[in-house]
Every structure is written in structure tokens, then in C-alpha cells.
Design goal:
With about 180 residues, the protein is an all-alpha fold. About 80% of the residues lie in helices and about 0% in strands.
Length: about 180
């Protein structure tokens, strides 16, 4: 077995041992994402910034997440077809999932959001990074991703948000100089 598969089984073996923890892992893997979206929107609503700045933060964050998930992840999956762990291995699968496994779309999407938020609010960005880690480790535990899927998605999300942030700065500077 590969290291990736061994680490997968280490985490996936946590499933099926306790109804309480299974419910917790399912919540983190499947439903935490909705709370994070609400938290992001609440941050935009309550943050003490001008509306123009709030719109800028919203657009950069959403654009980063969409490009990472629907652009880069889907481009990679167009050429690399990695089956999900439950297709190949005997696993504790706690939630249904379809499509290819690498890179994780959830990981790319939420690490892009965490990175974009971090550029504007360090404390909230760290909270989003921690939440993204919990969400995505839970997706290994519930049997729908390998660790390398999560790490690959994390790199896609962080790099995409960082590049979009740099592009936004460049455009802003160009706008100011003209």
C-alpha cells in the first residue's frame, strides 16, 4: 500500500466506531460549508469598511473560489481520472459522493476562500483555514477522499487565490496610475 492509502485508512478507521463521532464527521464533511458561507457573508455585513471595499473583498473571494473549483480542479480532472477511495477499497463510507477524487473540489474552494479572506482579515482567515482543515480531514474520515486529494485541492485553492489577489493589486495600481 502507498503512504497515501495508509494515511487514508488511518483516518477512515475512525469512522464507524461511534454514532456521535460519525454524526460529527458527517456534519464537518458535508454541512460545515454552509456555516462558513454564512460566516463570510456576516463578516461582510458587519465589517467596518466602505461598501466599495466590501464589494471588492466579496468579488476577490468568490472569484478565487470559483476559479479554483470550477476552473482549475475541473481542468485537472479532465486529464486525470482518479477514482474515489470507496470505489477501489473497502472503506467506511458515511456520505455519498460522485465524480473523480483528485484534486478535492471542497478543498480547493474553501482554501481559496480562506486565503482570500486572510489577505483582508488575518484572524478570520485563520479561522477559515482551521475550518477548511477540519472539513477536509473529515472528508477523508467519511471515505470520499485520499489525503493527497485534499493536499492537491489545498494547493490549487491557495495558489489560485494568491494569484488573483496579486492580479487585483496590479489592476488597482494600474487604475490609480491612469
Amino acid at each position: 500500500m502507498t503512504i497515501d492509502t495508509n494515511i487514508f485508512y488511518f483516518f477512515n478507521n475512525l469512522a464507524g466506531k461511534s454514532a456521535f463521532f460519525d454524526i460529527l464527521f458527517i456534519f464537518l464533511a458535508k454541512y460545515l460549508q454552509y456555516l462558513l458561507v454564512i460566516l463570510f457573508l456576516a463578516f461582510l455585513f458587519f465589517v467596518q469598511k466602505k461598501n466599495k471595499e466590501k464589494i471588492h473583498i466579496f468579488l476577490i473571494t468568490i472569484f478565487s473560489a470559483i476559479v479554483a473549483r470550477l476552473g482549475v480542479v475541473e481542468l485537472i480532472r479532465l486529464f486525470y481520472h482518479r477514482p474515489r477511495p470507496f470505489i477501489i477499497h473497502n472503506v467506511h463510507q458515511l456520505i455519498p459522493e460522485s465524480g473523480y477524487s483528485f484534486p478535492s473540489g471542497h478543498s480547493a474552494f474553501f482554501f481559496a476562500i480562506a486565503t482570500a479572506i486572510y489577505f483582508y482579515n488575518k484572524k478570520l482567515g485563520i479561522i477559515f483555514f482551521i475550518a477548511a482543515i477540519f472539513m477536509n480531514v473529515s472528508r477523508i474520515i467519511v471515505g470520499v477522499h485520499y489525503p493527497s486529494d485534499i493536499i492537491g485541492g489545498m494547493f490549487v485553492g491557495v495558489i489560485t487565490a494568491w494569484l488573483i489577489h496579486l492580479l487585483a493589486i496590479k489592476i488597482k495600481k494600474k487604475k490609480i496610475s491612469t
